[in-house]
């Protein structure tokens, strides 16, 4: 059975955003059952956990053959097991993998920087000063993404692991309307989040925080 690590508790604002969600979503799309190894914020620092996830973060993954970390690498690994995530045709497969990298390298760093200024350090004077520029960079990247998605349901003709990773990255912008207020990106994200596999993954993450099953 596949095991993934996840936190047993995070603050309310982080619920539904923790990065094990993307792994749960990939597993749900692939139809692969999994269980969670819930850890707390002390256990993440233990030597045993550090051997599984060197940066003391979640998620980490173990399928009995491979133990690994980094959500991008994990969803690609799951993609290898399921055509629902990664097409077999080599060019389509390469394109889908490209979007996973684009989410992690071309979108996420800018979004993270904006979050540092607008959310995590919102009360600091330097953050107020830095925020407009951070927002400018994010808007530029989002405009490029919207250009690619214009008139398309999915990034590459059908849903792939690339959409999954891009959608997870866009969801981090839930604190502002840069995505939800965009006529292309807003509906795209809604389409992604409407997928039953996403709904099951989200419900499962939330349930692990409360110990109570939540409606999908
Ligand atoms: N690059 C890593 C980042 C993982 C990450 O940022 N995990 C966060 C939760 S979303 C975490 O564990 N934070 C706790 C900490 O850093 O101590 C990945 O994508 O797997």
From TrEMBL:
Coiled-coil intervals, chain numbering: none
Residues in GST N-terminal domain copies: 7-86
Domain of life: Bacteria
The protein's name in its UniProt record: Glutathione S-transferase family protein
Listed Pfam families: GST_N (PF02798)
InterPro entries: Glutathione-S-Trfase_C-like (IPR010987), Glutathione-S-Trfase_C_sf (IPR036282), Glutathione_S-Trfase (IPR040079), Glutathione_S-Trfase_N (IPR004045), Thioredoxin-like_sf (IPR036249)
GST C-terminal domain ranges (all copies): 89-216
